[in-house]
Structures are given as C-alpha cells and as structure tokens.
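Q: Protein A?
A:
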Amino acid sequence: MTALTASAALGKGRVRLVNIKQHSLLTARLRVLIIIVVFTLVACAALFRLAYIGIVQPAPQTRSMAEALLPSRGEITDRNGVPLARAFPAYALWYNPRAMGDDGSPLVKSPEEVAARLKAIFPDLDEEDVAERLASGKAGYLRRRVLPEEANQVHEIGEVALELPQEKDRYYPQGEMAAHILGYVAADGHGRVGMEQVLDKQLTDPATRSAPQKLSIDTRVQGALEDELRRGMLMVDAVGAAGIVLDVDTGEVMALASLPEFDPNKIDAEGEKNMFNRVTNQVYELGSTFKPLTVAAAIDDGVITDLSRRYQSRKPLAIGGFHIKDSHPMGDTLNVPEALIHSSNIVTAQIADRLGAARLKKTLAELGMNERPYIELPARGFPIWQKSDWSRLRAMTVSYGHGVAVTPLHLASAYAAMVNGGIWRPATLLKVKPGEAARGRRVFKASTSARMNQLLRMVSVYGTGRSADAPGFRVGGKTGSAEKPGKGGYRHHTLVSTFAAAFPMDKPRYVVIAMLDEPKGTQASSYQRTAAWNAAPIVGRLVPRIGPMLGVKPDSSRDIDLSDLKPLVHGGE
C-alpha cells in the first residue's frame, strides 16, 4: 500500500511539473507576442510619420548664412550711393497690462506720470491720449517706431508693462526729401506709390536684395530743388508747386519734386492727402511754354524760313466767334524772335495756322503728349488730348498752351528733345550706365534744335525770362501763365505759372521745369501772378546752386552766338 501510494504521488507530481512548465512556456510566448505586436505598432506609426513628413508635410526650410545676414528689404540709394531708404531693426512700444499678473495695478507709477515720462522721450506724443490708454487697462501699441536710444530711455522708466518688441522697419534717412519718388512701405511689407512699389520684387528677392537699387537722382540737386520750390511757393502763397531737373541726353531725372510733400517715415491723414504727384500725375494747360514747341515744329517743317518776317499783332484774331488776344499791346507787327520774347498769342496762332492742325498734332504726339508720361512711377496722368482731327481753332489755341493738358514731365521731355539736337527719349528714375541711354526717336532736325537754343536764350536775355538768367550759366527758357479751367469756362483769377528752361544754352545739358499752382499776387512778386514774376525767379536761384554739382561751372566768357538774331529784336545790336 505504501509503495502504491508513493508511486501515485510521484506520478501526480510529474504531471503537475509538466503543467507548470507548459504554463510558463505559454506565458513567455504570449509576452514575446505582445512585445512583437507593440514593436510592430510602434514601427508602423514611425513609418507612417516618416511617410507623412516626406509626402504631405513640406520639408523644413534651410537658410544659408549669407541669406540670414541679408537685410529684410534691399536698400535704395541716389546715383552717388547716398542712402534714401533702408531696412533696420527697430522697436515698438507695446502696453501689456498683464505683465505683472492679473492682480493689482499694471503700473508702478500713475498713468499720468508714465505718460509725462514718455512725452519727454517722444515730443510728438499726445500725452493726454496716452494717459487715458494706460488708465483704461487695454493692451495695445503706444508707438510703432522706436529707435534703440529711445528704447533705452523707455527701459529707464522702470515699468514692466511697457514692452519693446523688436520689429523690422523701413527708414528714410533723408526724411521728406524725394518722398514722391520713393513712396513708402505699408504694414504688409510691400511698397506703395513710388519706387518702393516699382522695385518691390528686387528689394525683397534674396537673390537681388543684397545690392542697393541706384536711382538717377542726386540728393544734392533734389534738396536744392525742393528748397527753392518751397521758398517760391510760400512767397506767393501758392497751393502747390512742382519741379524737375532732367538730363537732356540720357533722360535721367536728376531731381523731381511735388509740394506739399509727405514724410514716408510717418504716414498719416495729412501725408496721404499730399501723396498726389503734381509732376507725373496731374495734367495742366501749361500756357505759353508751348510756343517754342510750335515755332520749332514750323521751322522743322519749312513753314518758317525767314525769322525776320513780320506778323500783325495789333488786332485780335477772330476765329468762328472766338477772339485770340494778347495780354497787353505789343505793337503793330512782330517777327518770330520778338513774338517769343514778348509771348504773343496772336503771332503764335498765325504760325500754327500756317503750319496746319495735322502737322502740329503730329509733332506733339511724337513728343509723347498724347499718352501717359514715360517714367517708372505708377502714378502717371493721362493727357487731355482730342483724338479726332483738330479744328483750325483747336490748333491755334494749342499752339499757345490751351486745349491740351499734360504733366510737367511731358513738358520737360519735350524741351529736352527740342534742345538736345532733336531726339526725344523717355525719362527714367534709374541710373543709366555710360553709353546705355535709350536711343529715343528723332522729332526735330539738329539745325532746328540749334536755332531754338538761340531763341530760348533770347527770351532770357531780352524777354519774360530775364529773372531766370543766372550769370555765367547761359540759361534759356520760356514763361507760361495759363488760367485754370473751371465750371463755365476759365477762372480768370486762378493761374498755373510755369518756367521751362535749359542750361547752358551753348551746349544744353539739363532741362529745368518750375511750376506754381495758383500763385497769388504778393509783395514778393510785386503783386503780379504771372510766371515772369514767380516761376522764373525760382529757376534763376536754382541753377547757380545745382550747376556746379552737375559739372556746369559759371563762365561769363562763354555764351551761345546770337549775332545773327540780335538785329531782328527791337533795340538789338
């Protein structure tokens, strides 16, 4: 019994041991299977993530060290490398009322005291408005443009709630100078209005923004033009002024100004109102400045062959019920030089009548006066120009600057063609490399241009342009005083006064246009409103300032030869 019992017990133990081994083996296999499943799931998730990154999600952008060091927006300079617009890291002044937590006042000092401290740093700040905004507890910008030295002064106030986040900014170191040329950069980082808009792609593209974009203007000439225009405008209480200095051989704009100006560093409501460009966007009837163009067309076409021929100037011309008159009596007869010197509408109209409407219209169209001015700026005004055939009366009035309205830039390009040998070229605000000027198109014969240079010089020596005759610079030009149109006809007491000039007339290099919008008769202009008394003196003061900068030195021993024309002028020798 004992042996059988022992044998049975031994058998049961063996069975139990086998069962334990089998259970342990099964548990181990299950654990391995779980690990394999988990590993497989993890691997699948990783593979899925890699596939998503590679196929769906764009790869992270890489930037070279050179690109990282580039300015956020390229620099604009004048022709000599003087900076006009550049990007620089700036700060903004932000009020964060939660900077010290939600409990208690966000300011250590009172809002009035903090506002007073900020006013000391930023003199143009509205102290009362800032104090109200600080007291309101609302977050927001207190100022968008803060220079580094100003940021340091803000830190010294010791208010944690006054934060100075760093931002990318556009800075115009010359302030308001050349504002209508440059334009500005809006909050979206893109240029508006001027060359900032025109060159936006080049200024933001990493491939091109490292190199400054050189404009044609000279800051010295630009500053002088703006200064003299502003002075002339204030002297006669004009509502605006415009001016341009143009290289007659390349079409490069050396200076271009429209007043009143705006500050591209600070665009406000007043600045937005003054963004309108009077040089390229506003069209005017420019009056007697058209008379030399009419005479040039007649000489070029063979209508004028004898400058001594006399035209009646005593009686107004009656054309279809309309009477063409002169501003004052000029004698019974005038020849061509005398007609330009004294600015006779009657004689100019007779010349245009002999030339014919079709030929005058064709010449002005070749000078670009039937389309928007050629320049890179986006703001370019379309002329008031009758497309259909001109009537006899239309041609006669256009001959002395009425019936067609163009921009001052149109006039500058036309005068450049008239004095440079007869070649019209488009104006440009980009610096032109030597030998790469636009070929242009011939409008006048070289002989016609040479004769017109003599006649323009005579206007400054003997005629209405005497106040523009800067000694030694051989200035030539023509005045123009045109009534502005309004409801029911022309407004007889509202003028646009213009002087269109070139210098030096023995070898013209630059055209200068000075225009005043609605000048008044003041003591400074001897109570006269016409261009001889207000626009021409601007050129007379400007040319001696800019001539040496542009390589034209005064030389009283030189002048254009007028010996064959002097005997034709009453009192000439």
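Q: Protein B?
A:
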Amino acid sequence: MRRSAALVVDANPTARMTVAGQLRALGFSSITQVGRIADARREIERHPFDVVVCGDNFPRGGSGQALLDDLRRSGLLPFGTVFILITDEATYLKVAEAAESSVDSYIVRPYSAGSLYDRIEQAQRRKVALWDIHRALEEGRHDDAVELCLQRFASRGPQWLQAARWGAEILLRLGRLGQAQALFQSIWDADPKPWALLGVARCQLDDGAPAAAEQTLRQLLELHPDDPDALDVLARVQTELGQFTQALDSLERALEATPLAIGRQQRLGMLAFLIGNRDKAVELLQRAATLGLDSKMFDAESLVLLAIAAYERDDADELQRHRAELHKRAAADPDDARLQRFVQLADALQRAQTGHALDDDVARWHDDAATPGFTMEAACNLLAALAALTHRGQLAPQPALVERVGLRWVTSKAMGELLASAARHHTPYAEQLRQCETTMVQRIEAALRRVGDGDPVMGLAELVTLAQQTYNARAVESAWLVLQRHRNQLPNGERWHQQVTTLRAAYGTARHRAALGDPRLRPAGGIALGPLDRRPLPPRPDQPA
C-alpha cells in the first residue's frame, strides 16, 4: 500500500478527512480528496488510482453507486482499481444495488481502520488473482479467458471457484450452453454452491429444455427452499411452460423472502399485468416506484404498464405523470432504443386521450414489428395498448397489425396464451392471436411433413419463406434443424446455409426469448463480467458509425 494512490470522495469534510487519515495510517503515499461527484470523475480521468473510497450520498445530486456505474459504463475505471463504498445504512435496496454495480466492498459506518484495511487487501488479492482472465476479456479474447478459467479450476489455484464461475458465465453469455452447463455441473460436484446448480438450470432453460430446468430447480429448492434467485428462474421456466398461476406463486415466494426487492416487485407486477390482474399489477408497480424510482434497480417498463393502466381507467393526470418520467429517462439516454419505444407508446396513448389520430403511430408500429429489436416485451406492451385503444373506440380495429405481431411471437402455445392475455381488453384480438398460434403450427408441420416424405428442398424452402414472412423464431429454428440434417442432399447448400444463418442471427430463439423486465440487468444467479456487460458508447460526431 505504500506505493498506492487513493482517492477519497465524500460530501462531508469531516468524514473525508477521517477516511484520508485512516488511509495515511495504513501507509498510502498519495491521497487525493474531493467533495463532489463531478470532481471525482475529473480526477479519475486525469490520474490513476489504486483505491477509491467513496461516500454514498451527495446533497447536490448523485451517489457513489451512480459514479461507479458511470465510470464502468464509460470504461474509465481500470479493473485493478479497488472501489469501496461507505454508507450510513445497509438496507436491502442499497446492498442489492451495490451487487448490481459490482462494488468491490461495501462498508457501513461506523467501522474501524483495521476493517477498511482488510477490505482493501481482500479486494486487491482477488483482482491480482483474476487479472489475466480479465485482461483476456478486455481484449476480446474470450476463448483464452475461458481456458484460463478452466486451468485455474483444474489446478485449484488462487480464486479457483470465482474463476470457474467466470468461465461458466462467459460460456453462457457466448451461447456455448453445453460447455457452460458442464462447467456449472463440475463446480456443483466440487463445491455445491447454490449458484452452480442454478447455473445448470439457466443453461437448460436457454437451451430450450424448460422441463429439465424445472427438475433441476426443484432439486435446488429442496435443499434451499427460500432461495429467491432459484424462485426467479423457476418463474421464468413456468412462464415458458404456460404455467402462469404457478409463476405468480414463485415470484410471490421470492418477494416474501426479499420484501424490499424492487426488481422482484416489478417482475411480479409485470406478470400480473400481462395475465389480466390489473389491480394487483398496479399496486405492485406503484409500490416499486415509491420505493425506488431513482434506483438503478427500477425498470422503466413499469412506467409503460402503469401508463397503459391509467389510460384504461381514463386517468389523464396519472398517464401524463408516467409519460413525463419516461421522457425524462429517454432524454438522459437518447441512444436506448428500448426507452424510445416506451416513450412513443406513452405519447400515442396521450394523443389518443386528447382526440388526435394515430395513423402515423400505426404505420410506425407496423414497421417496428418486423425489426430484430422488437422483443416479446414490446409485443405485449403494444398488444395491451392496441386492445385498450380499440376497446375505447379511439382507434379503428387493426387486425393486420395484430396478425403481424402474433405470427412473429406465437412461438409456442404458452406464448400464444400470453399474447392473447395481454390483448384481453379487446376479445377479437385475443381470439385472433390464438388463431395465429394454430396457423403457425399447421404451416410448420406441413413443411416438416414434406421433409419427412423425402422432399427436404421444398420443405426447407417453405420454412425459409415462412420465416421471412413472419420472423417467427420457431420457423427459423425449424429451418435450421432441417438444414443441419439434410445439408448434403441440398443443391446450393451454402446459399441455404447463409440465408438461414442470417435469419437465425436476427430472429432465432437465442435472441428472442420471453423476459420480464430489462434483459440487460444482471440475471438471477448471474454475475457482472465487466467488458461483456458494458454497453458500447455511441460514436462521436467526428467518428464514423
């Protein structure tokens, strides 16, 4: 530590001097003190620091976690820098946000200098042990990072368990699900941590085996009945299986175990909204907004659903409040396409409420429904809004738009029911969506029968045409399977391969799964992985896109 430089960030001069004195007593040779978030960012941009000790609250705005998020997002905080957050309280929300931000250590006042020393030393040892793996990740050498993790795990070297967890998470993020599952299973066999078996279930779910994932989760919950992460993933499994009531029960159990968890309140509220329990949904989503509207754990999707509910109740003031908050968030992050979509939907509801036509909105929705970025979440939001608008007579029926959304997203009977439930305010839409599921099943099965009857060329052609017309992931994946099994029998096999691969990259199951809430947030049981989590910064005006 005698060769280390530290930055102390705290709005309180007395607290700042106390921390600086403690660090000086520990032997730090260089200590810089600042009292504002903006000054801290400026110092970190200009000078390297080995340790940053930061207070949590700043009267002029901002927080220690907000500073850390900003530094990580912009890539200004080196992996080797230890970031320690000091706070006056340890509420569930603050601890959860600290975990989401990957704070190196979290200290509650009062604390001793010895405790601060121990936290710094532990964090530095951990970073040194994982440095080579992180560097490989930072340089985009994912295979090298995985190999280093596997070597550390096999040799039981320093931080072997954490290295193995990193390796499994990297494989999972890269879509190498079989390898990720095998590594999680090996970790569980070596040291049965709940997150390892949960990782096995996550891999099974992402690999299209929800029944196997459910069995794995039942095994985990027998050992740890109140594990909230396991219950979160179980709710995902049950949603994919169409067991919506059971999914609600699982989320309620998770929330009982962590009653102040904003993310879980929102997920429970979102699912309640989609299956038609508006009163319960509004209560949960409003409570989440009251607890932490400014928290990084709060998801703007809640504001969209509250805006739709307000429109359904003809509550113009509440609709305007949610719309204004969405505009504020979108203005702060103009490159977030998800936020922009939320704003456009809330604007359309407000225009309809004031008697304006929605012709331009309908045209934009029709185009948007064909883009790769149009998620299951966007589909459910749009269908709920369309049903409300049509039910109130402020929009003419839109069967073509509903069919386009339905044919794309009815990838299973369960998803068809979820879409129909989202549109339940207008019964013809719900019935139309159920018919979309029947239509897709019939057309895919007809194409597969051609393949089974010995005509893989025509069968594949029908599946590819269907996928190009509907962007349905089930049609895309069916075409991929036919291609894999019959590629040697196909003329122009390379052209078919290129065509299906392009469709799969944009519209396949790996990219388009049902999810409650922002999929960019840390998944239940997952960990932050630095470079793999960082959203690319938009290009500067003087740089090519």
